[in-house]
Design brief:
The chain is mainly α. The protein is 74% helix and 0% strand.
Length: 85
């Protein structure tokens, strides 16, 4: 399976977007008064797990986009086997 150049770029940008958004979200949860009583609350744990899973998915998706990028660029330069052009 190969991805188009546009799809590869979208996946790469999704991965970058995840690394921009989720750390900011976690920082906001960290300073929220509901996050810690004497220790971490369920509110904090749930949001920390959500952030970790989202960063993991964002990283995997970004890596897929990064690896597909050179192949998508090669496809642009290859002649069409059907038309020969």
């Amino acid at each position: 399976m190969s991805l188009s150049r546009r799809s590869a770029l979208f996946l790469l940008l999704f991965g970058v977007w995840s690394w921009v958004i989720w750390p900011v979200f976690l920082r906001n949860v960290w300073v929220d008064p509901r996050s810690f009583a004497p220790g971490p609350t369920a509110f904090f744990v749930v949001h920390a797990v959500l952030t970790a899973v989202s960063l993991l998915f964002g990283t995997v998706i970004g890596v897929i986009g990064w690896r597909a990028r050179p192949r998508a660029a090669e496809e642009v330069n290859e002649p069409d086997p059907v038309t020969g052009g």
